[in-house]
Predict the 3D structure of the following.
Amino acid sequence: MDDAGALWNLGTGRDESRHRPPRDDDWMPLALSQDERLALLSAIAQNVTPVGLWEPATGSKVKPLSGHPTRVMTGALTEGGRRVITGDEDGMVRIWDTSSTKELETLRGHEAGVQALAVSADDRRAVSGDGEGRVILWGISR
């Protein structure tokens, strides 16, 4: 087996990967949708879009989410998988539509890089935290 990554079943201890994660642009995983249909990836390389969506079941190419000018540090997918929320080094939180990959909203309020994000179970709120200890609760439009 190569070192491209794998999907391990913790119950059986077996590799259940059908497709390997992309390696060409040095992607780092940030989040997985509840239905496992989408993975949110952040680029480690400097010359690519900082964040994108990948479909593990099909092994698709990464679909870029264009808008962040700096490295994306954290992200979360809503329970239904319709929206993705990302936070970057510049303190911006962005909300995206996963189908179209279009940015829906930019949320401003952090003065330091966003390092943590979580979404409520009802997809109505998100919380983000930055490197200076500021935590912001956001309302998410549906």
